[in-house]
Specification:
Length: 268
């Protein structure tokens, strides 16, 4: 039994296959519905509206999948890598740490100011420098007497070196005194200003007497000339005494309040 296969051009008939649509031979265009005109599409279930053909449904689903795939691909390409995200979170656009982190680190690294010393501690610190000054004074007195005696060239030379070293130590006292906080002491700033001036005059006197010892080289015992360096040393010593007396006037009540020893200009 043979089948009759029609030949000829094909066309799409949307009413073929029960309304689902399909390709048919042009010669068969009217045979499928030979009983009369093509039937109207059956109403869709529920609302009475016509149902879309299956091909449109397939096209809609396929198009939606393609659009979703494109969106996912673009999102993946544009999404920053974990390393870039971490860098952006910890750094500013210029590459430096963010302002919040920088401010936090700076506040943590800044040292806090030490607590201010009490009046008793400040007074004790000044008294410790006075103690050092007293030891230097005795060495200066001994060195000047050695030059005046001129027992030998070696003794005069040694005395001159002692005086030069004393000047350096006096300047060290001035530096240490300037670093002290005396804000808790009554008239503390005025007192230390006077003491600083007195020690500076003493350092000038020490250097002048050291120059005098150099001038006295080759002297005879008991016949040491008093050169201009000697005269400068005497004047600086007198200025030092005046400043130290002013200091002691201001320092005496402070020393008494804190149980510290009283001193005089000979000790300074």
């Amino acid at each position: 039994m043979s089948e009759n296969h029609s030949t000829g051009p094909m066309r799409w008939d949307e009413h073929a296959r029960g309304g689902a649509g399909g390709w048919v031979h042009a010669s068969d265009a009217g045979t499928e519905h030979s009983g009369g005109p093509a039937p109207e599409p059956s109403p869709g279930p529920g609302d009475g509206r016509p149902t879309l053909p299956r091909k449109y449904l397939l096209l809609a689903v396929g198009g939606g999948l393609v659009v979703a795939a494109v969106i996912l691909t673009v999102a993946h390409v544009l999404r920053p890598s974990p390393s870039e995200s971490g860098h952006a979170a910890g750094s500013s656009p210029s590459g430096s740490p963010s302002r919040a982190l920088t401010g936090s680190s700076a506040s943590e690294s800044e040292p806090s100011d030490p607590p201010a010393a009490s009046g008793e501690e400040q007074a004790a610190a000044v008294d410790a420098l006075l103690e050092r000054s007293e030891a230097d004074r005795q060495q200066v007195v001994d060195a000047v007497n050695a030059v005046e005696a001129c027992a030998s060239d070696d003794s005069v030379d040694t005395a001159g070196q002692t005086l030069a070293d004393a000047a350096v130590r006096r300047e060290g006292l001035i530096t240490d005194l300037s670093a002290l906080d005396v804000g808790a002491l009554p008239s503390g700033s005025r007192a230390t200003d006077s003491l600083r001036t007195g020690w500076q005059h003493s350092a000038d006197a020490d250097r002048a007497f050291a120059d005098w010892a150099h001038d006295a080289q080759g002297c005879s015992p008991g016949a040491v000339p008093h050169t201009p360096s000697y005269d400068k040393g005497v004047r600086s010593s007198e200025l030092a005494t005046g400043s130290k007396e002013e200091f002691l006037t201001l320092w005496k009540p402070i020393a008494m309040d804190h149980g510290l020893p009283e001193r005089d200009t000979a000790e300074l």
